[in-house]
Every structure is written in C-alpha cells, then in structure tokens.
Design goal:
- It is a single chain.
- The protein contains 14 helices and eight strands.
- The chain is an alpha+beta fold and 396 residues long.
- The strands form two sheets. A four-stranded mixed beta sheet has the order 1-4-5-8. It has a four-stranded antiparallel beta sheet with strand order 2-3-7-6, with no helix packed on it.
- The chain folds into three domains: 80 residues; 109 residues, Butyryl-CoA Dehydrogenase, subunit A, domain 2, CATH 2.40.110.10; 142 residues, Butyryl-CoA Dehydrogenase, subunit A, domain 3 (Up-down Bundle).
- The radius of gyration is 22 Å and the shape is globular.
- Helix 2 packs across helix 3, helix 5 crosses helix 7 and helix 11 runs antiparallel to helix 14.
Length: 396
C-alpha cells in the first residue's frame, strides 16, 4: 500500500464520506433498479470530487493523483461498498482514455460530457466468434458510402452491451492489407437501425454482463471514425491498456476479502489455533495467504513504477497470469470449506458483495483466464518484452 501523511488524511476523509453516504439497503436498491442505482452511485462520487478518479480537470474530472486514485479503488473494494464504477467502467476507462488520446475535439466534446453526467452507458464490441485472443483476425466489415460507413458482421462477449447506449467497435476497412493494418475504430450508437443485441446467459446465471451484437447494413456517420481509417489497431491498443492499471486493484484486493471470509468458515470447523495450524485447511490457507500478499506486493510495485515512469510496462502481464489461477484457488478453498451448503444454499458465504454464493464465485473466477487477454497472450508478451525471446511469426 502506497501511503504518506497527506494520503492517509485523504483516505480517512473518503472513508468517512463512504460511511455517511452509502445507504444501508444499497443491495436491495441495486437489485430493484440496476441502472438507476449505478447512475446515483457514480453521480454521488462525482459530485463529492472523487470520480471519475483518473479524469483530468480539463474534462470535468477531479484531477486526483495516481496514489489518490488507488485509495478510491482500494476503499470501494470493501464488501459493504457498492462496486465502482460498475455499469460505467467501460465509459470511464476505455472510452475516456481512447478519446482523450486519439479522438477529435468534437468527439471529446460530444461524448465525455454525457458520460460524466451518467447519461450514457458504453459497451466494448471487439471480440468475434473467430477473433478472440487473435483479435486482429476480425471479420466485421465496414466500407465508406458517402458520409457514412456501412457495417456488417457479428461481435460476441461484448461487455455491458445488454445495458449499452453506445459501443466502441472495431471493423475491417481494408481486407487487402496485412490484418493489423486494415482495421478502423468506430463509435457506434447501439440504437442505430440494423443492430441487434442478444444477451448471453453465463454459467453463473448472469444475463446482463455480455451480449452478441449483430450488424446488418448499419450506417455509421463518418464523423464517428476515431483517428484515421485503417489505424484502428494502434488505437485499440490504448483501449486494451485501459483494462489494466488502477482498475486491477479492486480485483486483486477482493481476493483478500474472499480469503478472509473463507478462513472464517474454516475456523468454525477447527476453532483451536494449534490444531488449525497443522490441519490441511490451515496449511492450505497459509499457502493462499502468502500468495495473495505476494500478488499485492507485485501489484503495488508495478504501480509505483508506473507513478515514476508514467506508463505501464509488461509487468502487468506477469500480474495477470498470476492473478487468474490464484482467484480460482481462493474461491475453490471457500467452496470446499462451505461444504454442501456452498453448492446448494444461496447465502452460504459470509460475503454478500457479489452473489453470496461460493459456487457462483468459483465459476466466475475462471473468466479471468481469458478476460483482459488470455494467459497464452500474456505469456507471449512476457517472453518477447521481458525475456527478449524471438517474436512468434505473424501470419498476415
């Protein structure tokens, strides 16, 4: 944890604000009106000067330092705090970071204000049925037709699309050049004629996280092209980088809470300290506890370097491939100590942040093997950029 006197005061003030602001029945409100509660929550954070945490003052943000941003994400990881920024995660990070670096002044003026006012939910529409980790192989096509581009194709696993008003979309605009050189980046109104959004029900039962999106002769104004035609791959890398950084903090720190809840269940079975220490449950906990703390040290070390250098490095890939299997092992430990109740009784967990269900939490943990770039892709990045190994041959 990065800390000094001024930051400690900021943390204390923010904790007090959270305690005084979050309603006791926030879970019920979230369940009753998912979008409405998310709008209230991000608006309250904005009005108090805490969000969107990394937005500069020039675009309406609070202009917080990176350590202060980390405090926001750390404190909102508490199980008694609603997830942040929730429904607006894609808008706050992917869209903001991409437009402020690559967007035109008109695009920035048009789109960032509705995001700041919590009036527009954005979705990410990159992956396709045959272009997941190999994103550059995407087949969705776009061709220029006067003042518009006409788009045809399909996207899948489009994050937040069931709730989305707009989406960031990659499409191939030149099929005759190497695949990374013929892609363009678009801002798309999901209410446009010819767009069909089909929610995907996951193994956890969730139906509102991802969707398929079908494009049939969809007309997109040419002014919604970000950057230059066929330069979308370079721009998309900015978007993908936005998935890392401070937003990794909540995912990693939630592991501490999950493990703490699991060991509380385990201690109900073996309350004696000495007996627990030599038991298989105790030794398994000790191993997991050590790995969770190692992850935290790796994460804060990488972020400290980010503060010093000003840009992320390939170290984030090391964290990613360490994080995913650790999430699986921690949730499996909780599922084991919960016993049969963990498989059948909703509420068997001591936590109530996400699902109150150890089985659902364990199933959801496997998402991270793929999310944010598959483990195989991360290993390629480590091999090439950290170890200096030869690049895999590109098939273009």
């Amino acid at each position: 944890m990065i800390e000094d006197t001024a930051l400690a005061e900021f943390r204390s003030t923010f904790r007090t604000w959270l305690r005084d602001t979050i309603p006791n029945d926030w879970r019920d409100q979230l369940a009753d009106d998912y979008r409405g509660f998310n709008v209230w929550w991000v608006s309250a954070m904005r009005d108090a000067g805490y969000g969107p945490p990394h937005w500069a003052k020039q675009v309406g943000g609070p202009g917080l330092s990176l350590p202060e941003q980390l405090v926001i994400y750390e404190e909102t990881t508490d199980p008694d705090c609603p997830g942040y920024p929730g429904l607006f995660s894609c808008a706050y990070t992917h869209v903001h970071d991409t437009l402020t670096l690559h967007g035109s002044p008109e695009q920035i003026d048009r789109h960032l204000k509705p995001i700041l006012d919590a009036k527009c939910v954005w979705a990410q529409a990159f992956s396709e049925p045959e272009a997941g980790s190999d994103l550059a192989s995407l087949k969705t096509r776009a061709f220029r037709d006067g003042d518009d581009y006409v788009v045809n194709g399909q996207k899948i696993w489009s994050t937040l699309a069931p709730h989305g008003d707009w989406a960031i979309v990659l499409a191939r605009t030149d099929p005759d050049v190497p695949k990374r050189k013929g892609i363009s980046y678009f801002l798309v109104d999901l209410a446009s004629p010819g767009i069909e959004v089909r929610p995907i029900k996951q193994i956890t039962g969730a139906e509102n996280d991802f969707a398929e999106i079908f494009f049939t002769d969809v007309h997109i104004p040419a002014e919604n092209l970000v950057g230059q035609e066929n330069d979308g791959w370079r721009i998309a890398n900015t978007t993908l980088a936005a998935e890392r950084g401070p937003l990794a903090i909540p995912t990693a720190l939630t592991l501490r809470e999950t493990l703490a809840d699991a060991v509380a269940l385990a201690r109900l079975q073996i309350p004696d300290d000495s007996a627990f220490a030599v038991s298989s449950l105790g030794q398994r906990y000790a191993q997991l506890h050590g790995e969770v703390e190692i992850l935290a040290e790796m994460l804060y070390g990488t972020l400290a370097k980010f503060i010093e250098v000003g840009e992320p490095g390939p170290e984030s890939s090391i964290i990613k491939i360490f994080l995913a299997p650790l999430m699986q092992r921690v949730s499996a430990y909780g599922l084991d100590v919960a016993g049969s109740a963990g498989h059948h009784e909703k509420g068997a967990s001591l936590r109530d942040r996400a699902s109150s269900d150890w089985l659902v939490n364990h199933l959801a943990s496997w998402v991270w093997t793929i999310a944010g770039g598959s483990d195989q892709i991360q290993r390629n990045i480590i091999g090439e950029r950290v170890l200096g190994l030869p690049r895999d041959p590109l098939v273009d």
